[in-house]
Design a protein that fits this description.
Order of helices and strands: EEEHHEEEHEHEEEHHHHEHEH
Largest sheet: 5 strands, mixed
Strand order of the largest sheet: 3-2-1-4-7
Radius of gyration: 20 Å
Strand content: 15-25%
Distance between the termini: 12 Å
Number of helices: 10
Number of strands: 12
Shape: globular
Helix content: 25-40%
């Protein structure tokens, strides 16, 4: 009888760890440092060691552990292979094989955004649904697509890379992926800052933003104050993201879109700008697809990782 599992979310700075029961209750949470030096060769052994330490600390019976789920910032194919994970300084890694050898436990692995989507479907903003698209608006734009309860991984592990949908020909600067005009460049926290600076440079229209450090937060704080320039910026952001998600809906037809990441802390007002353009451009059958804010915050990854092995 399996009683427990581990959910591990490997980030570029820290590794978030969770011990869960099989019903999805988190029993313990902790973090360790991500040691990315020497091509990240210490990361997986460190994760295995912290799991072993927790098993000893809690006096767990290994036969009662369902396994370990891992989310990592890079593409992961269905065999558990990572071709490269830049933020971890990894080249090719067979993640599942290595972790099973190090831990002696069953291991499942996935891209961190996909795994976070699974977590939000299981215990967060998408709870109760089986077809969920998660969009995370942070430094970049991440995405995860869940269809009939299963992560859409794709042939190269790149399923759900919503942030790299092409949305504009107006940019000359390259995205981190090497292309130009990606959604990430205009809808992430960094992208909203870019849109704001571009708008403020256009003319001298008065705005509270001219007296502030420009950030996604300051833009949406100004929107809440009714600042006309900030509203223009939010409209442009909403048009890019709403249009992109209308296109995603035409392919995946989800039950719900869940919006997470640091930008989502702006609250429900954020959704208004996205939904306005989503409804304008979505296929008729998809126009009323609901939007919700993510609920698990930084814990979405450990919840989704745990769900991978259950």
């Amino acid at each position: 009888m399996k009683k427990y599992c581990f959910g591990i979310d490997v980030g570029g700075t820290t590794v978030k760890c969770g011990l869960f029961d099989v019903k999805g209750t988190v029993l313990d949470k902790w973090e360790i440092k991500t040691r990315t030096e020497n091509n990240g060769c210490n990361i997986l052994p460190d994760v295995a060691d912290t799991i072993a330490d927790k098993i000893r600390e809690k006096d767990l019976d290994r036969d009662e552990i369902a396994g370990v789920g891992l989310g990592v910032p890079g593409p992961v194919n269905e065999e558990g292979e990572v071709p490269a994970a830049v933020n971890l300084h990894w080249g090719y890694v067979h993640l599942v094989n290595q972790m099973e050898r190090l831990t002696g436990l069953t291991v499942k692995a996935g891209n961190d955004a996909n795994v976070a989507a699974l977590g939000e479907m299981w215990k967060g903003g998408g709870a109760g649904y089986h077809n969920v698209v998660l969009v995370t608006l942070g430094t970049g734009v991440g995405g995860g697509i869940i269809n009939n309860g299963q992560i859409i991984t794709g042939t190269h592990g790149a399923g759900g890379e919503i942030g790299h949908i092409h949305v504009t020909d107006s940019l000359t600067a390259k995205c981190n992926c090497g292309n130009c005009g990606c959604l990430e460049q205009v809808a992430s926290a960094t992208g909203i800052t870019f849109l704001a600076k571009r708008r403020l440079a256009k003319d001298e229209t008065p705005s509270v933003l001219r007296k502030k450090n420009i950030s996604a937060k300051s833009v949406f704080d100004a929107v809440k104050e009714g600042d006309a320039v900030a509203i223009e910026i939010a409209e442009e952001f909403g048009k890019y993201l709403g249009t992109a998600l209308a296109n995603v809906a035409g392919v995946t037809d989800p039950d719900i879109f869940v919006i997470g990441g640091g930008v989502s802390k702006a609250g429900p007002i954020l959704l208004e700008f996205i939904q306005k353009y989503y409804k304008q451009y979505a296929f008729i059958a998809c126009k009323e697809t609901p939007f919700a804010l993510a609920e698990l915050g930084n814990d979405a990854g450990i919840y989704g990782a745990a769900k991978l092995v259950l």
